[in-house]
Amino acid sequence: MSKIKTSAAIPRRAASLGGGALLLLVLLGLFFWRSFLPGVVHFSNDGPLGALMGDWLKLPDSLTGMWQDQNSIGAGAGTRSVSLTTLLTWMLGPLGLSKFYAPLALLLLGLAGCSFFRQLGLRHWLVLVAALAVALNTAFLSSACWGVASQPICYALIFGALALVTAANKAPTFAGRWTRLALAGVCTGLAVMEGADIGAIFSMLLAGYVVFEAVVTKAGGGSVMRGALRGTLRVALIAGMAGFLAIQFVDSLVNTYIKGVGIVQSEERSPQEKWNWATQWSLPKVETVGFLAPGLFGYRMDTPNGGNYWGLIGSDPSWDNWLAGDQKGEPPRGFPRFVGSSNYGGILVLLVGLWAVAQATRRNGGPYSPVERKLIWFWGVVVGLSLLCAWGRFAPFYQFLYALPYFSSIRNPVKFTFVMNFALTILFAYGLKGLWQQHVAVADAFGGAIGGRFKRWRASLAGADRRWAVGCLIALVLLALATILYTGSRSGLERHLAQVGFEGAIGKEIAAFSIREAWIALGFLAAAMGVLFFTLTGNFAGARSGRFAVVVGIFLLADLGRAAQPYIVHVDYVHKYDLALKNPVIEFLKQRPHEQRVAVLPFPMPEQFELLGQVYRIEWAQHHFPYHNIQSLDIIQMPRMPADLEAFEKAWSSRGTPGLLRRWELTNTRYLIGPAGFAAGLNEQVDPEKKRFSVKLPFALVNKPGVIRPTKLEDFTAVDNPQGPHAIIEFSGALPRAKLYSRWQVNTNDTEALAEIFSPQFDPHSQVIVANADVPPGHGTNATPGTVEFASYAPKRIVFTVKATEPAVLLLNDRFDRNWKVSVNGEERPLLRCNFIMRGVQVPAGEHTVEFKFRPPVGSLYVTLAAMGVTLGLLVLLFVTRERGAGRTD
């Protein structure tokens, strides 16, 4: 009787996986070698070192809720999920995460790919080649390098789930089979926690695969209907376990980023506005060519030497009609582009994947079993549908998906390019397996020299193989002609670049770069076809089979490596954050930063002050302020603005200059940054009656020491200069962060309250509006009914020492949220909503300790922790069942 599995197979598999991990680790270490240097971190747009240093993100406190106090007037940010990213954050700390988050995520992705590709039946070295294609896929790599490495971790977990689902079919026992499926649910739940809406999209992909695989394999025997039922039960188990594990994250996501979000919930926004919001990041159809030529439209927006991205991903929809029309007049003011990612998965990956699809169309012969052919069709359909969805507003297909429940709250159809690349890597793995079985691990069918081999192979071509070969050659000729025509249209390209924001020398440089990339891509396409035809003609067959994986691996490294380089950017954080200097602006603002907010003057600045605006918005607000916990009124990033904040912002902006002045008053914005000479203008034009603006700290922007020719904004710093052109301007009319009022009125009508706080007759220094119906109005006459002092401050816990001479309302000028709880002398009191959007509490006369605590519900956290306990039990059960199965014979 033959062995089903031997105990020796497990250590051999572990050894091969360890070898793969070591190889991937070395390669990724070479790509990210600068991360090992002291004083250097990897660039991150969405999670820079400064942002990671914020107190509101600290562990373990953030597991029970996060209050983002550095943006605007504060906002709940849900709870930090108990995820792999959280584990890495706890293990590495902010600095270590800034260095190694991206490569570690890609390492995990490659290893997870290994696990699935092994289940598909690939040999050891081919498994590593396929894993390399996954780890270096620039769609995944560029996301990791952009600061959202949680997305590649999400894809890794889906690969793990696929591996477990496939392994479940081979499990020798009922317990082993259903344990693997439950663990696939664990992977899916973790994927949702890492990828959010992307995780949800991939979980639906997994569900479709599970049902389809059960149908085509007739899992458990029997009819198609029985297979479909078995697949549905498997999906139910996976979904149940995923929901059990991810309930904390899903609860936080829904309550934070769906409920109460202005544009999602607003009835005032037209369907067209909501559609434009949801589809702004769509893939223009012409940019689909990026799957063939990675640099044709540039790489990142700051890639040097003409490599700037110049496409329209992320463009405001107002550009569509302008570009489609006569393009006369001023270009639209909305974003023309905003991107940091790629769609390139490798030209050989694409060709081999398409070869697998072509072979799957053969009814007889070929390298694939009937089940494998159907699974290849499944992934081929996924590729096609994903591309149609990724086109978003540029094609008519996404609207059908958008109409489904909750899909209107998912932004960015371009996310489906990740699904497309994911499926392409799986087709590539199937292609490698087919090539190995039919053209490598066989006797040399043609023999002789290369030329003779090719002639004999060509003579043997028939059917699908002939159509494939002819199609490849036709495609190569057509693409060569297209490249020649593109080169000849350089003047037209330069005109187009000028229209979309790249005029003069930069436009010429970008045009030259794009044309050069087109020729490089054509060269790689020809070389990839050469590798493929070299394989098909038997040049790796027989004794030369070991060279196949080496050649394909080297080609992938060369191809994907050159496309990956522009996204791997490192930063000298000591230089960037002025850690060796004393920036007087930052030093001033970081002193007790919780007592006031800072903002940049929101007026158009003369040309000589443009540098100040750029340094403030990009360097200080996005990096230095969060690094030092400086609280700014300016919104750094808030794609889903809460409905109440959106209404507040609309209210002041519709009132012009008086509304702006009142906004600074109500929001505790004491400091403004702008040209020093603007202080006098503010007193004359914005606050002519009270003239409450004055220069607090004049300064100048200069090159940092050692920088002769600055090339980046981080090369500038501020220095004290009494005659400096810039200044921190103090607005003495801003309300303090906390203030006592003996006079308050009650108004539960939000529209009226919002209008009143911005009316000229309302004095925010002497009275406050309360929205709680059960609070009687206050008619005190004391203009100063006591004092309020900070006893301690943390983002989620604020303690005040209050001395009230009469009953009063304590107003805290931070945004209201029902998850804040307040106590006076340890006794919980009702939280008041004041001035439409702020929070407060009633206090009696006397001395008190008032404590505000942010305490969102944490019941779902305990459910997730219980699910993790169940996961540990499942892992033990899997080990036990595998050990028992290892010794069984049939």
Compose a concise summary of this entry.
The chain has 890 residues and is an alpha+beta fold. Helix content is 52%, strand content 12%.
Q: Biggest sheet, open or closed, and with what strands and sense?
A: 5 strands, mixed
Average pLDDT score: 88
Q: Span between N and C termini? A: 6 Å
Helix content: 40-55%
Number of helices: 29
Shape: globular
Low-confidence parts: 1-10, 261-265
Strand count? 21
- Beta strand %: 5-15%
* Widest sheet: strand ordering: 5-6-9-7-8
The rounded Rg comes to 31 Å
What does this structure look like?
α7 packs antiparallel against α29. The N and C termini lie close together (6 Å). The strands form six sheets. The protein has a five-stranded mixed beta sheet, with helices on both faces. A five-stranded antiparallel beta sheet has the order 14-15-21-17-18, with no helix packed on it. A four-stranded antiparallel beta sheet has the order 10-16-20-19, with no helix packed on it. The longest helix is centred in the first third of the chain and has 36 residues, at 84-119. The chain contains 29 helices and 21 strands. The radius of gyration is 31 Å and the shape is globular. The relative contact order is 0.10. Helix content is 52%, strand content 12%. The protein is of the alpha+beta class and 890 residues long.
